[in-house]
Amino acid sequence: MSKTDENNKSKRVGPPPIRHGVDYVNPEEEDQMEIYGYRPHFVHTLLTWTAILMTCGLLRLLFHWKPHWMLTCTHVKCPLDCAKKVLLVDQFLQKYTEIIEHLSSNSLKYQYSQSKESLEVPSNNSNPSHSLVRPQPNGVFELTNTLTFFENKKVRYIWESEKGQFFKVRGLDSDIYCSYFYQQKGLIIEEQDSRRVLYGENAIVVEVKTILQILVQEVLEPFYIFQIFSLLVWTLDEYYYYAACIVIMSSLSLTSSVIQTRRNQKQLRDTVQGVDTVNVCRGNDVYEEIESSRLVPGDVIEVPAYGCVMQCDACVISGNVIVNEAMLTGESVPVTKTPLPNTTIDEQYDTKEHAKHTLFCGTKVIQTRYYNNAKVKAVIIRTAYQTAKGELVRSIMFPKPVDFKLNRHIHKFISVLAALAFIGFIYTVILKAMRGTPWHKILLKALDLITIVIPPALPAAMTIGVVFAQSRLRRSNIFCISPRSINISGCINCVCFDKTGTLTEDDLNFAEVVPVNTDKNKFESAVDVLTELEFGPLMVCLASCHSLTIIDDNIIGDALDQKMFAATEWQLEEPHVSDTTKYDLLAPTVVKPKNKDLGLEVGILRQFPFSSSLQRMSVITRLSNGSEFEVYAKGAPETISVLCDPNSLPDDFTDTLMEYTEKGFRVLALAYRPLPSMTYPKMQRASREDLEKNLQFLGLLIMGNMLKPETTPIIETLLSANIRTVMITGDNMLTALSVARDCNMIQPYHKVVLLEPESLGHLDNDEEIPLAIRGTVFARMAPEQKQQLVELLQELGYIVGMCGDGANDMASLKQAHAGVSLSEAEASVASPFTSKTPNISCIPILIREGRASIVTSFGILKYMALYSLTQFFSVIILYTPACQAFDQLNRKPPPSSLIGITPLSSIALQILLVAFIQVIAIVIILLVAFIQVIAIVIVWQQYWYRPHKTSDPEDLKSHDNYAIFASSVFQYITLSVVFSKGAPYRRPIYTNRLFTTSLVAMSALSAYLVIYPADSIAEFLELDVEAIPLNFRVLMVLLSIAHFILAFFAEVCLKQYLL
């Protein structure tokens, strides 16, 4: 095994264990948070604001960055029942401070009377209720006089005094029996108003801040505050040109940031925000048209016939609804939503289990189907940010922090630079004080050294690689809604793939049908032309057991269903709802053979949609001239065979199934059952479980599932890059195994072992780990099991990518470090990345761009660090001789004093404090310091050298200054080259023409300034070059070339072959 014991013991993904004595909200859930109560303390508040005034507001600025510090300084801990504010700590140690609010019936009455006076509400308007309610189990709403709550991340938490805890306000999706929805007849206005106080307006509001608000928010960030501090220091020290350049650059950066932030806010608002008019039931089939923002859980609404976008989550209780869920799942195939079966009234409602009966916010209603002019009705279960769409929007607005080593190391690196700056500050103060420099000059120079060591432009520079990578991904039709995930994608070492539609083609090809010979109890010869099949249960099953529908004269539905139905050469009709007498039933969908007698027409009276957890679907039909109903089912052979009468299964069932699955075919089993004594009302009320049993096995449907042409080379590319590939599919194990072999995910020489555990969740830890480490194909996986596997791989230390194309993959796409949804949509909130190219070629592109981005980030980090340290060394070296030149008591020749133990140990100390993890970076730092020391030692040995002696501290013109300038000016160029290494993660540096041109131009300009600058330029730069011979100037250039060769050798050669 390649994973160490340390990886095996890695921390479990999910909320940390409950600690005794600590209060929690959402315990043992994904958003579990610790909660602490606080109340104001007058003395603490007074002392805190006194300190804020004494620090001229700097302390308040610190509290702006750390609000919980303000809370702990002005408040004291207390029990939650008497708290005025709460401190929330999530599993990522993020802290949030929220204010507790109180509502009472009396306050509502006052607010209503005030609004009525100000708005002149007409007297004939119905007064809203002044009562407050709190939710209880089983959909009960209890009257209360007071409501205590706080909000965090758009979620409201209310206080339960009986339990002494805050609880999340939930909709009607938990602790609710299915029978509850059929009991709902509509809310009167007073009930609706009371619930609206509890739940708030039904609107996903994305605040778009004004330009001034965004500007102030950006300027108050630590990065810009430090820049303002640096500009102030540079201006006081008369660095006007440099300060002006930084002002221009910062202004451009700030303007771009403000524009981009506001554009993103507006785009998100325009994407998710919407208000519509809805017909809501007030009881007794009385309907009122209201704005969707006024809806609350429990309202009964009429679903419009077509063309609307759902503004809430609702459970269908009558009629059928055809919707497009592309915005949520990335799948543009219409989905039929059927009423929650009233036979499951004793079941508890579950959003995942009953997803086929639930309309989700943000999905588009294409068409509704209803009978006898009955309305298509649904009961609202969630509104606003509680909806599926609201949860996705919240995940965008409040993303989980990315636990990435680079981010952690940047903070450590800045801490090291801060320590280095502090040492340089002390060093400068001591040297300047020894020479008798005025205190304000000492402070200015020491502060200037801090702005040198800590690069103000570091945060902005670190985002450059991500910005360009995102731009290149967009050109490759890969769209990203989480730019922070780009760097992580460069570290992916395991990629999980869905099979159907991802590795294989979306469109399954009909291959053949294998009927059963009931007399011999064996399979007959396969039939590949269905028109040759006799009319009977098998033919009716193929023609009717599907969820196809007609929209704009086109048959729409699942690709498998379409191929199966097309092979029958039957036709599908959906009579108008007014035609209710054709079968003496309620207008069914009709299938019938083309150009055949009408007596063969089959009406589809009831559908049980495909369920990934049940792995089957079924329909109830009746012939137009028939007298009994029949139920037809199709699904996974393992599932259907269990539901069939064992005597109807052929003796060669297992052998035939293995024969086809080993060849990579998609195999579905077909079965049926006559319902001779069942009446229509009884049929409509019968439960799915009662109908789908004692079935008669009919045969096997064989579908060809061909690999996409891009699949095999991409899998080989990933394997050659030592990236593990895993297949996660809901299909048969042998079919998946065949596909894995075809695409070389499993090599011919691999020994294959088949295991059939019940589920990942039921395995012990000792069983899960080997399975996750060695497993390549995971078949018959439900959506939640796919998510469990991705989570388990993350626990083992893998950086996991996931690529899928459907709703079944949504949970695992969001769980993975980098999920890629194959969708026609430009952006899908189902995953961080969306590829419009419908194959897995996007995966190596994403990994390459991620690697390029992270290498660029490392290069920029190293360059900015060495850039600052180069300046730091230059200033320290120049400060040291300047101090000794003014030392009248102990004047010594510069060479003997500057290469002594004290100055060199000081320089070595600064170098050792630079906390680079990579050994090569330390070598390059040593080279920078070494070259500068060599340059100044050489100049001291020259006969024409004049020590810098002046009574004017502003006179910087000296041979020392020239030597340091001549060596350091080339070092910046050297560092930019050696840290811009191309292969294996980026293209060669010369392919970036703009960058290469700028390097050549800067090198030529630097050589000109060092070797033979014009007198006016030398005077402007305060370079003393009059007495320096030409051969020494050339020597400085040669010294810089030597530094370039050594630095390039250290970064490229040593790093590649030794580390």
UniProtKB/TrEMBL annotation:
Ranges that cross the membrane: 42-63, 214-233, 239-259, 413-434, 446-469, 860-879, 899-917, 924-943, 963-982, 994-1014, 1034-1054
Localization in the cell: Membrane
Domain spans labelled P5B-type ATPase N-terminal: 29-160
The keyword rRNA-binding is annotated on this UniProt entry: no
InterPro entries xrefs: ATPase_P-typ_cation-transptr_N, ATPase_P-typ_cyto_dom_N, ATPase_P-typ_P_site, ATPase_P-typ_TM_dom_sf, ATPase_P-typ_transduc_dom_A_sf, ATPase_P-type_domA, HAD-like_sf, HAD_sf
Domain Cation-transporting P-type ATPase N-terminal, first and last residues per copy: 184-234
GO molecular-function terms, A-Z: ATP binding; ATP hydrolysis activity; ATPase-coupled monoatomic cation transmembrane transporter activity; metal ion binding; P-type transmembrane transporter activity; polyamine transmembrane transporter activity
P-type ATPase A domain: residues covered: 277-396
UniProt record similarity statement: Belongs to the cation transport ATPase (P-type) (TC 3.A.3) family. Type V subfamily.
The protein, known as: Cation-transporting ATPase
Organism: Medioppia subpectinata
Lineage of the species this protein comes from: Eukaryota, Metazoa, Ecdysozoa, Arthropoda, Chelicerata
